[in-house]
Design a protein that fits this description.
- The protein is α+β, with helices and mostly antiparallel strands.
- 24% of the residues lie in helices and 29% in strands.
- The protein is built from two helices and six strands; from the N terminus they run ααββββββ.
- It has a four-stranded mixed β-sheet with strand order 3-2-1-4. Strands 5-6 form a two-stranded antiparallel ribbon.
- β1 and β2 form a beta hairpin.
- α1 (12-23) packs across α2 (25-35).
Length: 95
């Protein structure tokens, strides 16, 4: 089961991040060494619901739901101009 939640279209980004980190143990170790942080993201959908994910680049190099134990940085939403469609590619939203 992936990390994406259909109620939060932008959440496909977390599956993409997890795949990238899982693809290469060497790259994961490098990302941990460079970032040394846990990033938490809380998204809000059009219905007003919120859901959280975190990217642990301090210890495990894994992506999971929830904010994590002690996030280094917290982002409360993705920028409104960023549209991550079902294919996981970032594109500028069209007005």
């Amino acid at each position: 089961m992936g990390l994406a939640n259909d109620k939060f279209p932008s959440s496909v980004a977390f599956d993409a991040i997890a795949s990238a980190l899982d693809a290469s143990p060497e790259d994961r170790k490098d990302a941990i060494k460079q970032a040394n942080a846990v990033f938490a993201f809380t998204l809000k959908n059009k219905a007003g619901e919120t859901e959280s994910w975190h990217v642990d680049l301090k210890e495990s190099g894994k992506v999971a739901t929830g904010t994590g134990a002690k996030p280094t940085g917290t982002f409360n939403t993705l920028p409104p101009w960023l549209d991550l469609g079902g294919d996981g590619r970032a594109e500028r939203a069209r007005a």
